[in-house]
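Is this the right way to post structure tokens for a design question? Let me know if I should format differently. Anyway, here goes:
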């Protein structure tokens, strides 16, 4: 089953669990994914965008070809607005800021991404501190709001690592200590806004952060 937040004639809003693929991967063991789960209730569901396997949160799936084309265009033209929440290791010296570092795939270590000023694609993330949190062991971490302006693979995860504050539970980019603090990646897509594919009116959906 999948948690459906909203549906109409054009699209479905679903809550993707963490450690679930957005779309099928290669091999029989990678066929379970959010898209196939949604299709059990909405057989015509079509993929528009993806979240990382480890990331939870809001995804939109189109129900018609026309809706898919309209939504794809909104993402390509950056008419969508996405907001994430995460818990990062340590405490930034500032209360907000931006990370603008070009990214590309680390081909020898796929699916990892790396900063590359020569071959990387432009990537921009705005961040804002929401709260400082201390664990029972006295470790200080920070809850942040992340707003990606571009949509590169692993963008938020690599940008936080580049800041020196990787996301807790990140098995790709965090330190061993950061991984040990959480059994999941503490990154959640909590908000998505976009022009409705039928009316062009701006619609917004929020799935509160579960951690």
């Amino acid at each position: 089953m999948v948690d459906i937040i909203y549906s109409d004639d054009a699209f479905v809003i679903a809550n993707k669990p963490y450690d679930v693929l957005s779309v099928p991967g290669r091999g029989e063991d990678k066929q379970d994914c959010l898209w196939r789960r949604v299709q059990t209730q909405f057989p015509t569901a079509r993929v528009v965008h993806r979240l990382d396997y480890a990331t939870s949160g809001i995804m939109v799936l189109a129900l018609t070809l026309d809706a898919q084309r309209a939504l794809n265009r909104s993402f390509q033209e950056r008419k969508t607005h996405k907001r994430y929440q995460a818990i990062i290791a340590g405490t930034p010296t500032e209360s907000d800021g931006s990370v603008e570092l070009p990214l590309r795939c680390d081909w020898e270590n796929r699916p990892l991404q790396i900063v590359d000023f020569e071959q990387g694609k432009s990537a921009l993330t705005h961040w804002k501190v929401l709260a400082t949190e201390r664990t029972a062991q006295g470790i200080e971490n920070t809850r942040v709001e992340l707003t990606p302006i571009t949509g590169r693979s692993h963008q938020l995860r690599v940008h936080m690592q580049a800041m020196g504050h990787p996301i807790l539970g990140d098995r790709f980019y965090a330190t061993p200590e950061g991984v040990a603090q959480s059994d999941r990646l503490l990154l959640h897509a909590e908000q998505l806004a976009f022009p409705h594919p039928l009316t062009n009116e701006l619609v917004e959906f929020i799935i509160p952060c579960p951690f």
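Format looks fine. Someone answered above. Worth noting: The longest helix spans residues 65-76. The chain has a mean pLDDT of 96.
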